[in-house]
Amino acid sequence: MSEELFESAEQESTGVSRRNFIKTAAVVGASVLAVQAVGRTEAHAAEDAKNEAKAASAAAAGGGAKKLSDVLKTAREKLYPRCRVCPECDGVACSGEVPGMGGIGSGKAFRNNLQALAKYELNMRTFHDVKDPDTSLTLFGVKLTMPIMSGVTGGTTYNMGLKGKVTEEEYAEGIIAGCAKAGTMGFAADGIEDPLSVYETRLKIVARYKGQALAQVKPRTQAEIIKRVRLLEAAGVPAFAIDIDSAGRAARALPGQTVEPKTLKQLREIAKSTKLPFLIKGVMTPEEALMALEAGAAGIVVSNHGGRVLDHTPGTSQVLPAIADKVKGRMIILADGGVRYGADVLKLLALGANAVLVGRPLLRGSVGGGAVGVALMLNKLRDELVVSMTLTGTADVKKVSRNILA
Questions:
Q1: What tens-digit pLDDT sequence spans the chain (406 residues)?
Q2: Closest CA relative to residue 337, chosen from 105, 93, 99, 120
Q3: Positive or negative torsion for Cα 102, 106, 111, 116
Q4: Cβ pair 297, 278 in contact under 8 A
Q5: Which residues contact 264 (CB under 8 A, 6 or more apart)?
Q6: What is the distance between the alpha carbons of residues 139 and 35, in angstroms, rounded to a whole number?
Q7: Is the bond into 255 cis (omega within 30 degrees of 0)?
Q8: Quick one: which H or E segment has residue 82?
């Protein structure tokens, strides 16, 4: 037999032997497993049942049983196609989808929020003694664990397409309870198309978390605003906001649900109608920030409504520094727009905000996991914020220097 044929025969013989060995091992292994299965005691089975019950109980209570990846997967399944829950939420896939989850028109204002924030970079510094940064602060008399609160989001049917999946009450409960769970505050929304009864339902949730939940009112007629302010007082909110930027949606408001721009006189009237701190959301210029101060507002939210009311507006981080230079220290400055990571939070604080509002990430948290999902998302953002503070030498969120920005 030639050497080549000998090698070929040897390989074939070896192959047969290996296949026979594997087949025999599989049979023996299966037999052993079967014997083990039969031999399991009742104590083993009882222990398994006990562990399964524990896991079910932890999942029901939140108890760390859910992972953020699971929350996002569920959110994607429920929100699609209104929101694709893209890995990078950049507003491209949903451009022009208003009502919906996208930016209005070309979607440029939505994208400007993200792109403007991305242009800022962080100067890394490691020669310092900052080892345990302080992320706590007090706003409107409420002690918070982080300078991160929920954005003003709502409309489970007309915006999110969740009819039959998640109710307005369930969504609001997820936002507000999740924020409270993480040691911060959530906003109850007032939707243009929502009747007063829906708003009252949300405020019942606010009342349950008295002192740790905020609320917003649309820029309706003065009489309608004052009516809602009385409800907010009864619910025990520490402050409320009017998203005056919603005036850009006046053409789409339903009959009898008027939203409108406001004069300085009207804003003064609202501020004087209550002892509650009053925030004006939708300020994008230093001039209007000063007007808000003059009107008696306790604070402003620098916001272009997520790029969902007026196309081609600048990103909020573009205008924030000039606004902060005029009114920082004289009123509370909140900011939103494109916040996806803890580093984004630190950037907005460095640009002049006292705290930030987060919209889409927490929206996904509530839809995908209720209060647990929102708390998971908030704690992820806080963890990222701590890392960013440590590696920029920032000891306290109440004292963030602009020079950490490159």
A1: 433 333 333 343 444 343 443 344 443 343 333 333 333 334 444 444 444 343 333 333 344 448 999 999 999 999 999 999 999 999 999 999 998 999 999 999 999 999 999 999 999 999 999 999 999 999 999 999 999 999 999 999 989 999 999 999 999 999 999 999 999 999 999 988 788 999 999 999 999 998 899 999 999 999 999 999 999 999 999 999 999 999 866 545 556 567 889 999 999 999 999 999 999 999 999 999 999 999 999 999 999 999 999 999 999 999 999 999 999 999 999 999 999 999 999 999 999 999 999 999 999 999 999 999 999 999 999 999 999 999 999 999 999 999 999 9
A2: 120
A3: negative
A4: yes
A5: 291, 294, 295
A6: 64
A7: no
A8: none
- 31, two tokens: 């037999």
Question: What one-letter code names the amino acid at 378?
Answer: L
- Quick count: other Cβ atoms within 10 Å of Cβ 143? 11
Q: What is the DSSP secondary structure assignment for residue 19, as one 8-state letter?
A: H
Tokens of residue 251, six digits: 């053409």
**Residues with Cβ < 8 Å from 24, sequence gap 6 or more?**
none
Provide DSSP, 283-307: E-SHHHHHHHHHHT-SEEEE--GGG
The two tokens of residue 122 are: 């962080």
Q: How many residues does the chain have?
A: 406
